[in-house]
Amino acid sequence: MGLSEVFVVFFFFLSCVKCVELKDSSPSCSFPAIYNFGDSNSDTGGISAAFVPIPSPYGQGFFHKPFGRDSDGRVILDFIAEKLKLPYLSAYLNSLGTNYRHGANFATGGSTIRKQNETIFQYGISPFSLDIQIVQFNQFKARTKQLYQEANNSLERSKLPVPEEFAKALYTFDIGQNDLSVGFRKMNFDQIRETMPDIVNQLASAVKNIYEQGGRSFWIHNTGPIGCMPVNLFYKHDVPAGYFDQYGCVKDQNTIAVEFNKKLKDRVVKLRTELPEAAITYVDVYAAKYGLISNTKNEGFVDPMKICCGYHVNDTHIWCGNLGTANGKDVYGTSCEKPSMYVSWDGVHYAEAANHWVADRILNGTFTDPATPILQACYRH
């Protein structure tokens, strides 16, 4: 390496150090509220309020009762709220015990970005697709303004968002995984690829809608390694060589997830030019989750394909919290003894300890573009 190259590298190093110093010295954003859009990865009670409540032992690990989450405890959105020193988000569909002063959650388990022509009773796909969640947000925002103006005292206003704070809130998105799940069920891989531009464009339209109403800070999760769900192993016999990777994940499904995430990231980059005042953070949840799955032993977790809750022996599968029959006897899908050692809670969703592990690594900016901790996600880069 010549002297000039050394100088360039040294100058680049100094520049990077200065960037880090500037970033670290920037004040925190002090988000007053979070508005979340998503599926079961971030649902905090929406699908339970709309249909049948999620049963015990869901929620038992942290909340000591079912609490509308597809986990034994907290989901990543809860750790986001904790990091921002805000209360856990009430689901928009909850009619009782709600407080929307610091945001609302429009996510429901089974939600997709694109509308699906099937009911929740067929394959668990929620009727509250992303466009409906945005319609709900629009109603919520308009109704908030009306109620705030009509309120007679501070007590009436105490559980309502402050209308001026919608512009200062953080808008989080964690949705798209179920679009791929539906694709795997209904299409070949080429057909799935053909749907991807429309899926990411519909997500971009949702972001634009909020931007046009004054929202400026966006935190967008990509989709996780869908091929690493233990449910993919059910009823699989005599699979061809190379079907699974070394960690037990379905290779082709993860390949599709990676392709989808690339298109999503490209669309986010384009959004930054289309929405010049927006601070948009792309969050590589896939890399964080696969990082855990590929290193469970060193991180203190059991085999990532082991399921904590439910009864799964040979080809008999009784879902977490359900009653079924095995060998002529009633069997209840109960929890394992140490959920904190499991990545998978129920074969599809992550246990709280795994959610916490992933949250720790995305909230500090390790897996985000730009590499910004969530406390500074209001700054454009």
Keywords summarizing the entry:
disordered N terminus, 6-stranded mixed β-sheet, alpha/beta, 381 residues, 11 helices, Rossmann fold, two-stranded antiparallel ribbon, single chain
> What fold name goes in the CATH topology slot?
Rossmann fold
- Name the helicity range: 25-40%
Radius of gyration: 22 Å
**Approximate shape:** globular
Order of helices and strands: HEHHEHHHEHHEHEHEEEEHE
The CATH architecture is 3-Layer(aba) Sandwich
Portion of residues in beta strands equals: 5-15%
Strand order of the largest sheet: 2-1-3-4-5-10
Cα distance, first to last residue?
A: 31 Å
Q: What is the tally of beta strands?
A: 10
Family: Belongs to the 'GDSL' lipolytic enzyme family.
Signal peptide: 1-19
InterPro entries: GDSL, SGNH_hydro_sf, SGNH_plant_lipase-like
GO molecular function: alpha-L-fucosidase activity; hydrolase activity, acting on ester bonds
Task: Characterise this structure.
Its EC number is 3.2.1.51. Helices cover 38% and strands 11% of the residues. Strands 2-1-3-4-5-10 form a six-stranded mixed sheet, with helices on one face. Strands 6-7 form a two-stranded antiparallel sheet. A two-stranded antiparallel ribbon has the order 8-9. The protein has a single domain, classed as Rossmann fold, CATH 3.40.50. By secondary structure, it is of the alpha/beta class. The model is unreliable at 1-23 (pLDDT under 50).
Question: Short summary of the structure?
Answer:
The protein is α/β, with parallel strands linked by helices and 381 residues long. It contains eleven helices and ten strands. The strands form three sheets. A six-stranded mixed beta sheet has the order 2-1-3-4-5-10, with helices on one face.
